[in-house]
Write a structure and sequence with these properties.
Layout: E1 4-13, E2 16-26, E3 31-35, H1 42-49, E4 57-62, E5 65-66, E6 77-80, H2 94-99, H3 103-106, H4 114-126, H5 142-154, E7 160-164, H6 172-189, E8 193-196, E9 209-214, E10 217-222, H7 223-226, H8 229-236, E11 240-245, E12 248-253, H9 254-257
Parallel strand pairs: 3-8, 3-9, 6-7, 7-8
Antiparallel strand pairs: 1-2, 1-4, 4-5, 9-10, 11-12
Helix pairs in contact: 4-5, 5-6
Bound molecules: adenosine-5'-triphosphate (ATP) and magnesium ion.
Length: about 260
């Protein structure tokens, strides 16, 4: 059975369906990008996957278990939420924040111990933040905070990694570091990744499948089925161009160029 299954899922706020009859599967080792303009339901899709938002219709399975029921596998999803700015005086260190990733697996009233602390330090090193574990989290740069939240998501060895726009709002160098971190984790663990991003280009070599959301429509398919001008134009409008440089494809949309 696939690692994630969305089967004809409709999700609404009030009477307004944001996702309508959405079907897709994520298999072992898939690297899935969820893309689409603002407000098309990318975060809603993730909330539905996590069991936080209930669908009106359809079923969602994670690791073989319907998420609408009590699903122990929900704990096996490492989740990096869409970024919210953090007060520079937020009273927690990087290590404190990463350790909160162990709480779901520890259970009620159990505090992280030596083992979890060692795991947190190992993951902090893995995301390239070694030596920063005692820094106040709110005083790290935006890119460092993103990498810290990725380390947090990896606590307890998740079987699926879900990230909601982890490269949004940081400078280009930091975006590259976050992207490299995601790539390294994927190549090392080969756990399926479901990544929401507006910028597919840096990930095009990794992507296996794409869920493209538009207003009132969606397209799901293998990378080569979706990365086509006629499909992307259905969602982004006429200002879409795919260019090829040195054998690599790049998707250009008006979003990136503010023409
Ligand atoms: N809690 C809510 N109550 C009512 N409407 C909501 C709620 N959350 C989201 N929506 C609406 O649902 C639609 C989809 O929102 P969602 O946050 O899933 O979009 P998104 O694709 O993640 O957008 P963005 O690119 O801005 O992050 C939007 O029209 C949004 O206003
Ligand atoms: Mg969103």
């Amino acid at each position: 059975m696939a690692e994630i299954i969305f089967n004809e899922v409709t999700v609404s706020y009030g009477d307004f369906p944001v996702l309508k009859d959405l079907t897709f599967v994520v298999e072992k080792e898939d690297f899935v990008i969820v893309m689409g303009p603002n407000g098309t339901g990318k975060t809603t899709l993730i909330k539905t996957l996590l069991g936080v938002k209930k669908p009106d219709k359809g079923l969602v399975y994670v690791l073989g278990c319907p998420v609408q029921k009590v699903c122990p596998h929900r704990k096996k999803i490492g989740y990096v939420p869409q970024f919210q700015s953090i007060d520079p005086d937020f009273p927690a260190t990087l290590c404190d924040v990463v350790l909160t990733g162990s709480y779901a697996n520890l259970g009620y009233l159990k505090l992280p111990g030596k083992e979890e602390k060692e795991e947190a330090l190992r993951l902090i090193e893995e995301v390239g933040l070694k030596g920063m574990e005692n820094h106040p989290f709110g005083r790290l740069s935006g890119g460092q905070q993103r990498r810290g939240l990725i380390a947090r998501a990896l606590m307890g060895s998740p079987r699926i990694l879900v990230l909601d726009e982890p490269t949004a709002g940081v400078d280009l160098a930091s975006q590259n570091q976050v992207r490299r971190t995601i790539q390294e984790i994927y190549e090392k663990t080969r756990i399926p990744v479901l990544l929401v991003t507006h910028d597919i280009n840096p990930f095009l070599s990794l992507v296996t499948k794409i869920v493209l959301l538009g207003y009132g429509k969606h397209f799901v398919g293998e990378k080569d089925e979706i990365i086509r001008e006629e499909i992307l134009r259905e969602v982004y409008g006429e200002y879409v161009k795919i260019i090829e440089v040195a054998g690599r494809k790049y998707v250009m949309t008006r979003d990136y160029h503010y023409a």
